[in-house]
Amino acid sequence: MIIQNIKSLKIYKQNFRSSQQFLQSTKHMAFSPLQLEILKFYRQMLKFANTKVGPSRDSLLVYIKGEFRKNQEIPKRQFRRIEYLLRQGQNRYAILKDGNIDQIR
Predict the structure, then answer these.
(1) CA 65, 104, 91 angle in degrees (round to 5)?
(2) In angstroms, rounded to a whole number, what is the distance separating the alpha carbons of residues 105 and 93?
(3) Mean pLDDT, 10 residues at a time, over the chain (105 residues)?
(4) Are 4 and 42 in contact (CB under 8 A)?
(5) 61: closest CA among 11, 103, 22?
(6) What is the pTM of this model?
(7) CA angle (40, 45, 46) in 5-degree steps
(8) Chain centre distance of CA 64
(9) Residue 95: exposed, middle, or buried by beta-carbon count in 10 A (0-12, 13-18, 19+)?
(10) How far apart are CA 82 and CA 36, in angstroms?
(11) Could you tell me if 13 and 79 are in contact, meaning their C-beta atoms sit under 8 angstroms apart?
(12) How big is the chain by its Cα radius of gyration, in Å?
């Protein structure tokens, strides 16, 4: 569900010249606080992956996108499962950020 929203946002974003214009236009879109937190975490992970260079960046991007796509079909009402996966992702992010990990296979 979240990835579907991200995909629709990407398509929607293509119609705007600047990210400022895009962000102002998405204010009318209704997202739950949990969805906003997940979107924020997704962007944070992508920014982190883009700080890496070469094959490590590519492998991180594939891993991050794959994990989010794998869980995109979870119904919105399964709050416990979604929150669990979010916490699990945040823990993995902390390990990636603090550790000396270059690649994920």
Answers:
(1) 75
(2) 15
(3) 58 56 63 92 94 87 93 92 96 84 64
(4) no
(5) 103
(6) 0.67
(7) 100
(8) 7
(9) exposed
(10) 13
(11) no
(12) 15
